[in-house]
Predict the 3D structure of the following.
Amino acid sequence: NAIRLMQSQGLSIEEIDTLTGSALGWPKTGTFRLGDMVGIDVLAHVSKNFEAQAAAIQDERADVTLASFIGRMIEKKWLGDKTGQGFYKKEGKDAEGRDIRLVIDPQTLEYKPSTRPKFPALDMAKNVESTAARIPQLLHADASKDNASAFYWPLLTELFTYSANRVPEIADNIVEIDQAMKTGFNWEMGPFEMFDAAGVRATTEKMRAAGTPVSANVEKLLAVGDTWYKDDVSVPSGRLYFDPISSSYKPVVLADGVSSIATIKKANGVVKKNPGASVVDLGDGVAAIELHSKMNALGDDIVNLITQTLKPASEQVANFEGFVITGDSANFSVGANLMQLLLTIQEEEWDEVEMAVRAFQNMTQAIKFCPRPVVVAPYGMCLGGGVEISLHAAARQPHAELYMGLVEAGVGLIPGGGGCKEMTLRSVEAAASIRPDARGEGVEIFEALKKNFETIAMAKVSTSAAEARTLGFLKPSDNITMNRERLLTDAKRKARSLADAGYSAPTPRTDIAAPGENALATLKLAVWTMREAQYISDHDAKVANWVAYAHGGVKATPGTPVTEQ
């Protein structure tokens, strides 16, 4: 339907991809780039199957057929990424080494340079962080002033009507359709959730005024309520959905193990909170520390709440037997708030920098030495300080899709919250497990140190939880959750099991065998070699040498006992 609207409204392929991407909570590839990834022949097979079904059941959208220019592309075997060209194709690189992307003209089937479209409505929408808040802004804008709104109105209202008409034809209820689109197509919100965000009653009134058909199921809803979903803390899921078959609201039923902090907060409330984080009672003696700043960047709010919550004398430690640190957002944490740090550096407030680093280290130490087990459940992007939070926990329960890395070297810094220290401890432990009497000496410690040193100095980031384990960020004992919706439950169970097993917090170590001067010299030699080969710049070498110094522990004889601090 987006392609049909593109042709009728005279829009370009790049404009459609911009409009049907992340602004709506859909994959950022948009319509055509996604078609190239999937395969244009596959796109055609699916479309033709719909055409046949529509003819058989007299589907109200039988007018939505495969565009003729796509058929001509298939004849030429321009099938997308797998054949090197489709709606887009790459043509060399520009002077800065970036790919030059060409886009096809649907009229002539000739390729031309791709441009980045601009829409005033989308520029304004960028300031709105929530997709649910963006949708009504985009849908109800003045269509006469912006091509974006003129496109969104038929696209979304026709989507809403079509979806509503599919119950009970293709699904028993609206929840199944929303779940299928979110899980199968990676939409942030299903069509009924989007309809709620747009405002069902206001949107329907505008549709009636414009003479646009309205689904009978929508009329049933408006006779009873204003939204397809509504909150209800009396049911386990915390949510009801409208069932057009019975014209009544019914509880949303969640599969066993599926849960979210948002739902639990509605039922149990919040124990304590500030703008960056909250403490939520998960039940069974376990509490969650939910991160909810923008991108979950780690600023003063999060640092202070975690530190105060997990200190031995806190009310929360007295009231709960275990903790989970996680969140409901797209990413666990992008790391420390670097803008806040940069402004402090520009003002040359070095005492404040020192205090900020000390506060962050106090937070990670509070996690490690908390009398109760702390389980960190990372997901999505877990970078910099987010990794340091994970490294200090009693256990980790990561989601399978995990982009985890100590990336500070990429901006000219080294991990300052205990990340280098924890990775060094793991190197020492790995060497001791090979030669228990080595006290950090020998080839084993150099090999283990070198691996972790390279991971930090090169700012390596995993592309999965499995790879994060090979990089040393996760331990073999850390279990991986495959289903994101079960992550909170799995982490809670892990915290509960540690508590039930009689968890005893570790004590600060005073007998760590420092890798010492020999290890430091070996790592610095590796840095010098890379600089001589011109793999890294002078500043890269400076940063890497400080990473090496942090791994050496102290300039002392190898094996010298040092404290964790």
